[in-house]
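User: I'm writing a tutorial on reading structure tokens. Could you give me a worked example: one chain, its sequence, then its tokens, then a sentence or two explaining what the tokens reveal?
Assistant: Sure. Here is the example chain.
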Amino acid sequence: MRINSNNFDFHTQRLFIRKMNATDVPYLYAMESKPEVVQYITGKVLTYEETAQKLQKWLTTFDYDNGFGALAIFLKDEKEFVGLCGIIHENEVAYRFLPKFWKKGYGKEILDWLILYAEVLELNTLKALVIKENEGSLKLLKRKGFEVVDEQICEHTNLPEFIMELNLEK
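And here are its predicted structure tokens:
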């Protein structure tokens, strides 16, 4: 994996990852308009206008200068949009993919990259919030060493979720 945190130009074996920008509304809308994608995130499908507002808010509130924020994921060779990932709120991993890219190993590839990126940012722990029903993500996080440390009700979906952590200190 190659990491260049100065310009947000990242690559994994199969993926290209970059900072989101104002022209990415169609990509974000492709996700926000699909109930199966948002069911464990917000639980609410958004209109195109709501999606544009959400992206604008992200671009003005995320701390990109220090490496935190939403990143767009593309297939490296085809340049096709795959999904989103990032480290948000100082140490929380976040990722989601369009349904056609589920169960193809991209989640593992991105989570491996996010863990490496967190080490570059010199974070001591990573946190993940995962809805209990989201078995795929829960299984992936546990395989990568995340442990359940608490439970709560998700403020967006009102569903029970686990608070998981991964200790990065060596």
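What the tokens reveal: Strands lie at 9-11, 15-19, 69-75, 81-88, 92-97, 125-131, 147-153, 160-167. The domain at 9-123 is CATH 3.40.630.30 (Aminopeptidase).
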